[in-house]
Amino acid sequence: MKFKFGTQWLEDRTLVTKLIQGILDKIGSSERFLVKTEKDEELFHEGDELEDIYILLEGEAELYKKKPDSDINFPVLNLQPGSIIGITAYTTGKPSLTTAITVTPCTILQIPETELNELIASLPRLQDYFDELLLANLLDRFRETISLQIELDTVNQRLQKERNELKRAYDDLQKIQEQLIYQEKMATLGQLVAGFAHEVNNPAASLLRSTETLEKKISGLIKKSDVTGKNLNDAQVFYESGKRAGYPDTKSIRNRSSELQKIFPDVRKPHIRLMAQFPESLIKILKERNINDSDDLIYYLNYFEMGKMVQNIESAGNRISGMVQSLKSYSRSDSDQEWEMIDIREGIHDTLQLTSNRIKYYDINIELEDIPLIQANAAALNQVWTNIILNAADAMGKNGSLSIHCFQEDDQIIVTFEDTGPGIKEKHLPKIFESNFSTKTSDVKFGLGIGLSISRDIIEQHNGTITAENVKGGGAHFTVSLPIK
């Protein structure tokens, strides 16, 4: 667009206002429209219907906008000489959007709209000057709007960046809080386990010592016994067989009992069931001694049962002792253990020992190859093994199998856990290591509250990785990779 009077009007609107004032001076109307104001004087109020046009000749004015639901006026635009005050209301014919207040004493041309139209009709040059001034003011407001929009966008971007940073900080804080709760829980667990292990260890050791002494005394008594008509060597054989006897499954006992009942028809059924646990060598002795009656058989059964009882006491004592040792190893806190050179296979064995009650229903396949020692936090890694194993137990229910494989691959130690459960839903796989995400239902027996998120953090602290995937045909497969160096 080509301006009739050149673009200088856009840069210096006072020249235009002087030309307008000069025309009004010639026709003797300038003094009639000229208004002098003091500082802080209100020219019009927001919402007023404007009947006059205000042209600022000298001084400075400010436009204010009332904030919603308050009595606070917010400054929106500063006006300098050459500005048309209330230009939006003038051009649209609608009530004023703002309140105009003088900042300094001002000189203003305040011309009623009806008279301005008459002047423009009679003075074509006034129309040209006024159009230039009006256009310059509209362009000025347009520039101001663009500038404000750019500033608003910049502020919005900065606010969005700050919101993202706050969200990350909040997420980090929440994660730290979860870890602190978890560490406090594990520290308390360590104290409880240490006390429990101390209390149990002494009676367990005493039980084992007493069992060993009892076993020696029973063997001695058997050799010194004088039982008329009985073979003491047989008694010793039955006793020793009882100490070595295993416990066949129910089906085997049932089948063998049926066979023995035919061979020893006069022996009562409770005694037959006990005899079903005899090795074939003891049955041969009974046949050779022609033992067919329950009363005669009780002598041999008692020695066999004594052997089994001693075996059970010794096995229970060793199991308690092993559990105590595993608890001590497992529950060592980070401050007790720190980072040291460890064989991670020992931690896996300790974890299996402590979770034996939960995994007793499953076939456990363990293949732990020879691997080098690595520098690690054994207590933390034990928590990872516990979490994965118990998750597999929760998923499989009462039946299934769990395979654990450990081997070296290049400069990494790989540990894999594979179960025969239902696997992980595909939609859950990307979220499985996220904090506070769980696929467990309310009927899960118990949990340590560690979660796969904490397990991932522990592995990452060891500069390793942990991944999960589904096995074709069902089941989940977890892979943990730990660097040797």
Provide a descriptive summary of the structure in words:
A 5-stranded mixed beta sheet has the order 10-12-13-15-14. Strands 1-8-3-6 form a 4-stranded antiparallel beta sheet. The chain has 16 helices and 15 strands. With 485 residues, the chain is an alpha+beta fold. The chain is rod-shaped. Helix 8 (250-263) crosses helix 9. The protein has helices at residues 8-11, 13-26, 30-33, 87-92, 113-122, 124-224, 232-244, 250-263, 269-275, 280-288, 294-330, 334-337, 344-354, 356-359, 378-396, 451-461, and strands at 34-37, 42-44, 52-58, 61-66, 73-79, 84-85, 99-102, 106-112, 340-342, 363-368, 374-376, 401-409, 412-419, 465-470, 476-483. It has 3 domains: 8-150, Jelly Rolls (Sandwich), CATH 2.60.120.10; 225-328, no CATH class; 332-483, Heat Shock Protein 90 (2-Layer Sandwich), CATH 3.30.565.
Describe this structure in a few short sentences.
The chain is α+β, with helices and mostly antiparallel strands. It is built from 16 helices and 15 strands.
Task: Output the keywords.
four-stranded antiparallel β-sheet, five-stranded mixed β-sheet, rod-shaped, 15 strands, 485 residues, Heat Shock Protein 90, single chain
CATH architecture of the largest domain: 2-Layer Sandwich
Class from secondary-structure proportions: alpha+beta
Average of pLDDT = 81
N- and C-termini, Cα separation: 74 Å
Placed side by side, the strands forming the largest sheet appear as 10-12-13-15-14
Portion in strands: 15-25%
The count of helical stretches stands at 16
Please tell me how large the radius of gyration is.
48 Å
CATH class of the largest domain: Alpha Beta
